[in-house]
Amino acid sequence: MLFFFFVFSFIVIISSLSVVFSSNPVHSVLFLIFTFFNTAVIFLLFNAEFLAMTLIIVYVGAVAVLFLFVVMMLNINDSLMKEGFLKYFPFGLLLICIFFGELYMIFESNVFITPSDIRISISELVDGGMDNTKSIGLFLYTDYFIVFQISGFLLLLAMIGAIVLAHNEKINTRYNSPIDQKILNKKDVIKLN
Amino acid sequence: MIIIPEIFLSIGFLLILFITPFIKINAHVKVGYFTLLIIFLTQFFVLKDIFLFEEIFNGFFVIDSFGSFLKSIILISAGLVIYFYLIIKNEKSLLRPEFSLVILISIIGMMLMVSANNLLSLFLSMELQSLALYILVSFSREDINSSEAGVKYFVIGSLSTCIFLFGSSLIYGLVGSTDFSNISQFMSDQYSIPIMLIVGLIFILVSLSLKISAAPFHMWTPDVYQGAPTIVTTFLSTAPKVAVFAVLIRLLVFPFGEIIVDWGKIVIILSISSMIIGSLGALKQTDLKRLMAYSTINHIGFIMMGLVPGSEDGITAISIYLIFYLTMNLGAFLVILNMQRDQINVTSIKDLSGLYKNEPILAACFAVILFSMAGIPPLAGFIGKLLILNIVIDNNLFFLAIIAVLTSVIAAFYYIRLVKSIFFDPPVHDLDNFSNSQSKFLLSILSLFNLTVILYPQFFLNLCASITLSLFALK
Amino acid sequence: MFFLSIFLPLLSFFICVSLKDFFKSQQLSFISCSLLFMASVCSLLSLIGLKIEEEKVIILGNWISSGSLDLNWAIQLNLLTGSMVLMVNFVSTLIHIYSVGYMNKDPKNILFMGYIGLFTFFMLFLVSSSNLVQLFLGWEGVGLTSYLLIGFWNYKDSANKAALKAFIANRVGDFGLLLALFSIFIIFGTLNINEIMVLVNSHVDTYFEFLGARIHAITLICILLFVGCMGKSAQFGLHVWLPDAMEGPTPVSALIHAATMVTAGVFLLIIMSPLLEASSFSRDFILIIGSITCLFASSVAIFQNDIKRIIAYSTCSQLGYMFMAIGASAYSAAYFHLLSHAFFKALLFLGAGCVIHSMSDEQNIKKMGGLFNKIPLTYFTMLIGSFSLLGLPFFSGYYSKDIIIELLYLSESKFSFYFFLASVLGVLFTSIYSVRLLIYVFHGKSNSDEKVIAHIHESPMIMIIPLVILSSFAVFFGMFSQSFFFGSDHLDNWSQLMHINKKVDEFYIYENVPTLFRKLPLIMIVIGSSMCFLLYFSFRKSVLPFFKVNFSWIFSFFKNKWYIDELYEKLILRPTIYLGKGFWKSIDKDLIDNLGPDGISRVIQSFSLVVSRLQSGYLYHYVLSVVIGLTLLISLYNYIF
Questions:
Q1: A14 assigned to some structural domain
Q2: Residue C615 and residue B281: Cβ atoms within 8 Å?
């Protein structure tokens, strides 16, 4: 079990690094998809089948494919992206080394809590034979109801935002509103005598 | 139900959202007034329960008078911003009904933030708030600067989100819960606080510092403030700051109150660097909005000093300073909003020169507000600074007080340079007349407030002291 | 009542200054004179209503309350302050009336009335204060108004210079007074005059430790107080401003530089007399300075030609007498002389003002002469004033001055006889310059041109009336009130208010001073006047030129006031200016400005440039800065805290 975990997490790390480093944006997106898949496998290893499915359906099925379309349509010139890379690389490497070194030391000195001590009672439900999806549903609609609602608002806002930023009211174009034409009165119309 | 203000606000939001498409003419004005009405009613709900104390929704949120008080302040400042939006001449791209709506939803986010009692609910409400702000910053689509600012703000905001999530995951990994009271319980159980908890807290602090633009996490601020439409900048520099400060106070005082020794130093570093950056960075600026960004950073540093002792007095001083800061900032931005030449908004410092000749009363009001920002006695800003410095000195943090005073002196330079150019420089090109009598009226009220606070400082002291009491009752 | 007598002059000031554009000058003059008159009546009534040994303190409000320092705005009424207030008000009223005539042609005359009203208020405030800080406020107030009034004719360059000189010389003295106040507060812990008096005995043996030296605290305080008095009362060393102050209008000289302000120092030392009694060294010091002043001023006066300067030096020497009396512990004698001097010296100044007025603003006595039949009333009053100044028997000056001279003979000091001789010599000089003045101005041939002679006229009645009133005081004041100060039954009245020397008693003096010495001043007057008469009437042609040719250095020595001004310029002014320029150029401009304000602002500017440069506008820079900041905070936390 632990062995598989390490294998898949290694693949996740490698493929997510490839997302950043690969020169072709299309490759990057493909690596992203690959990362998602492997993450889903890790979720499955821990009996979180609902999360695994969601990840694949939402991220791979919707988000990543959208990314792919966008990338293909934008046709980004990859030589520009490389500019300045070498300039910043040594410093960035140093920074990353320090950062991860510190994190490593911190993680080493502490022990994480075991799942049994976690104060959220979801583990009880899972232990009691409820399946994953059902127990998550139970929680989301009872204890975590308010969080769920806020997430809903978040999505609504995202929708509004997308419309606000993307929707283009054609103010300057010569556009005839069908409604305006329908409600037109006869006396308002210019007559040609 | 006790969370009624937020629920009412959400229902109002949905209602407006529903009727918006049916309003044909002048939709943005009508929706704006609707929003104002809803904010006004919500204010009533907030004040009704101001002395209530209760944990609600499974401990995800808490209602207390500290939160209600700050919510009411947020509502007032957001309401004022919407009112500004309605009375000034806006660019065409801003004249859409969604503007008020997005502000409204970000208010919902802020109010939830203020009363969040769980890392999860805090995160979600903060996201709600931030997302609305990203939209607002890039609202002016035709303006390339606005879009650029929006992208910058969005990327930095996402980074902040990542950092917050990472910090919370560390804490969750240790504690096994995201609930504030559980975290507090965990810490009082421990013999020695694990270092990872503090590192987690540092991550969260950094993320919140990004939101309130405390140095060294301030870099986005000048660019975003300058690029965003001015009305959005006004909103950006007022209400969200209050909300994030509320979160900071609640987080640091309640669950992490035990490790004050650890986060105290970090807050000191943040506040010192903010004060220095805020005062030094503004000296060379030529754009008023950029200048205001640095001024905000400087004020934020000053306010953060009050947090260091983690005491009741400190929080009281912060609350008072926040109120005064809001009045000063709203006043200053009201002037900037009205600065137009040939119907086009201008924001350069040079454009202010000789304002006194055309608009003596307005110039005087602006000068009062600038002096107040500089902390010239007997104006409101001075009282705020005095209170905070008092707290700092009471806790024997003399070096901090000295730095604060020195940076205030430097900061005073750029405020007073503005006053100089208003009163003494010859006008380059005349600005359009500030024909807007409503903004004149509002501005004079704001400056009058700054002038006369010295007559009744005890009122604010008593009010804020009684409000902060509830925060410590939880302990 | 007493309150009114102090604040009515202030009201007069406010009325004059604020309403001067709305009313005619005559109306305002009348209002201001009548206010002063009412103030005088009030002070007279409050003095009459005052029982012997009674003391009233009227508290007007709290002023400073900081730690152990607790000061009230309070005015104090007792025999001493009451009589002083009465004198000030009385003289000020007469001078107000006189100024109406004197300043008639001046366009700013109402402002002038206002200023002297303000001056009167500050003087009264000084006199009646119950604590030293309030006294200091009055002290500075009279200094300020003195400055304003000396420089009243500010179109004259000399007037501005004189005003500045007076202000700066006073500042030196005020510094001493301030130091005295500080040391009093350190030693006694209070600045209330009555409380200090009570505490004196318990601090007789207190010493200051300063740079390893032990200094007797009370002596130090007394010397510092005296330094303050030297400035205000123009004692030798800080006297330089008084003669120059004569650039002001003559009523100002009469009020400020003869009757009231210059005597403030004497008054201060009188109320602090218990302190002085605790330190014999400081009394000796005062005696020395007083006698030097007395001799110096009277000798210089002989050689002056400006009528007002002669009287100014005379004032200086009379103040010297008062300080000598204080040095000899004869405080009541000093106070008595203060009052009688106020009357006859004001009289002399006002008379001189009349002379100047009638001579079309001519002040040089060499250009006058033969005026005695042209302006008889002025001549008569000047004569009375001079006699009183000389100390001819039965005039006021006789009573007050002779008793000082006799007490000097009796004083405890080792050198009392020399001080006695100095004072007698002072009388000789006094008689010489007084007689010289009278001869030059009123007798002999007229030396002025035709135009002026044709214009000579008696001054208007409004100027003559104050003269007549003052001359009656100059004659009779001493005679009638002598027993009040020195009669054995009245001595107890004063013992509450100042230290009383038991020797100040007619009979004691009569028994202990040899007759010759008692008559010596009179003899000196006779010698001096006869010398003068001989010189100026009989041998005018032969002796004077002979002296002038052969002993010119003596003449120039005295004419140039012992070269004190020149000495000051060489020793103090030049080096100070030189040093100041040096400091300004090399230290202030080059060193401090460069390192200080300019340097700091340059450094800040360059820093701000750095901060602005960091703001590159590139998003990835910003993200990098966030990561750096985060790493920095974590490593700071890990390794430093």
A1: yes
A2: yes
Q: Determine whether the interchain pair A112/B112 forms a contact, defined as Cβ–Cβ distance below 8 Å.
A: no
CA-nearest residue to A139 within chain B is B58
ipTM of the prediction? 0.90
Low-confidence ranges of chain C (pLDDT < 50): none
**Among candidate residues B25, B127, B9, the one with its CA nearest the CA of residue B78:** B9
Contact A119 B176 (CB under 8 A): yes
- Residues of chain B short of pLDDT 50, as ranges, are none
With respect to residue A148, please indicate whether it lies within any of the assigned structural domains.
no
Residues 101-120, chain A: which have Cβ within 8 Å of B? Answer: 103, 106-107, 109-110, 112-113, 117-120
CA distance B223 to C615: 9
- For chain A, what is the domain count? 1
User: What is the tens place of the pLDDT at every residue in A23-73?
Assistant: 788 888 889 999 999 999 998 888 788 889 999 999 888 888 888 888 888
- The model carries a pTM of 0.65
Note whether residue A69 is domain-resident: yes
C207-210/C213-216 β-pairing: antiparallel
Distance from CA of C632 to the nearest CA of A (A): 9
Residues from chain B that touch C622, judged by Cβ atoms under 8 A, are: 152, 156, 219-220
Contact A164 B135 (CB under 8 A): yes
Cα distance between residue A179 and residue B23, in whole Å: 14
CA distances from B266 to C20, C466, C636, C637, C639 (A): 66, 82, 9, 8, 13
Domain of A46, in residue numbers: 1-76
Chain C adjacent subunits, 3+ CB pairs under 8 A: A, B
- For a pLDDT cut of 90, what percent of chain C falls above it? 5
Q: How far apart are CA C74 and CA C125, in angstroms?
A: 9
Whether C384 and C474 have beta carbons less than 8 Å apart is answered as yes
CATH number of residue A65's parent domain: 1.20.120.1200
Both tokens of C438, joined, read 């009278």
A102/C634 CB distance under 8 A? yes
The number of beta carbons lying within 10 Å of the beta carbon of residue B137 is 27
* d(C-alpha B274, C-alpha C552), whole Å: 80
